[in-house]
Amino acid sequence: MAAPLNLQNMQLIFANHQSNPRIQTTAFHFSQFRLRPTSPRRSQFHVIKNSLIEASHVYDDVPLLSASEAIERLRSSRESCKRTLRYLAMYSSVFGGIVTDEGAMVIPMDDHMVHRGHGVFDTAAIVDGYLYELEQHLDRFLGSADKAKIKPPFDKQTMKRILVQTVSASSCRNGSLRYWLSSGPGDFQLSPSGCHLSTLYAIVIQDQSPPSYKGIKVITASIPIKPPQFAIMKSVNYLPNVLSKMEAEENGAYAAIWLDEQGFVAEGPNMNVAFVTQDNVLLMPPFDKILSGCTAKRVLELAGDLVKNKKIRGVQVKDVSVEEGKEAQEMMLIGSGVVVRPVLQWDDKIIGNGKEGAVTESLRNLILDDMKSGPSTVRTAIPY
């Protein structure tokens, strides 16, 4: 049982720890306090008691680190984590160059992308030493920046050259390249007027886990969808997307499907949705209120081969009701992360026969072949 708190015990505690310099740096000196007679209940000396709680704990001093020590600690922290992702190279326009040490892959805290979410981003896949649809992603990237009122620090060709060189420096032949435009560092105010220059960041990511195209379950999202003004730009404001994904995982699903304000099918948290109707038509919601998916648009182009081979009757981009979607014979998610992945269940409704359909599989194979052997319009060679 702990000893009662009284003046004698407190003096003993201080005497026992007098030689401990770590205590001395954080403790209040006992002599600073004057005891005042009060009621018997107050005789525990509440002022000193509060100070004693502070003083009797052994606090580790917060170290003052040098830049090299901070980098080493960040590097060690990365190395100690069990993860399948590796970050092979990073470009920062703040540095004006590329680093390959994970300990140096940092951005300023006063960058408005960090504390105000004023930034946009995009991603391109690296497949067999080529960047897939880099031009298409860059066009969307710059369109998002324009909508977010961020003036890029470089023109498109300079950015493309920087991105290609970053991948080259990483020696990564299969992975992904993610890049950001921010209003830049400068202060912690709301307006970016104090930011002296916008910033470009890019990082090469290698995922060591094998891809999965296994059929999945989705639910209808209860998290509100972003208004069209924000949904059509790929900004770093992804909290609704994060909450939507978490809601799905909490309900044993892979993703949650958003509906627009009229109740039509919109999109997933970071992928588009498509269906194969009962009369064998590939059906996709329009892009006027959701993010224009580069992979989804490429799927629409490649689907022409399935029409020619009479695997589908046609392709349509139009509003899709929930009822129509759930009655489809096939449903799929499409995006650079999932490629083309079959949805076997939506809420309590089994889609089709509960197995991956032939059209979904064919579209995935078309995209994967396009990544490896498509035309120069969708593949940018990396000079390693």
Automatic annotation (TrEMBL):
The keyword Acetylation does not apply. InterPro entries: Aminotrans_IV, Aminotransferase-like, BCAT-like_C, BCAT-like_N, Class-IV_PLP-Dep_Aminotrnsfr. It comes from the Eukaryota. One of its GO terms (molecular function) is catalytic activity. It holds the Pfam family Aminotran_4. Belongs to the class-IV pyridoxal-phosphate-dependent aminotransferase family. This is Branched-chain-amino-acid transaminase. Keywords: Pyridoxal phosphate. GO terms for biological process: amino acid biosynthetic process; carboxylic acid biosynthetic process. Its cofactor is pyridoxal 5'-phosphate.
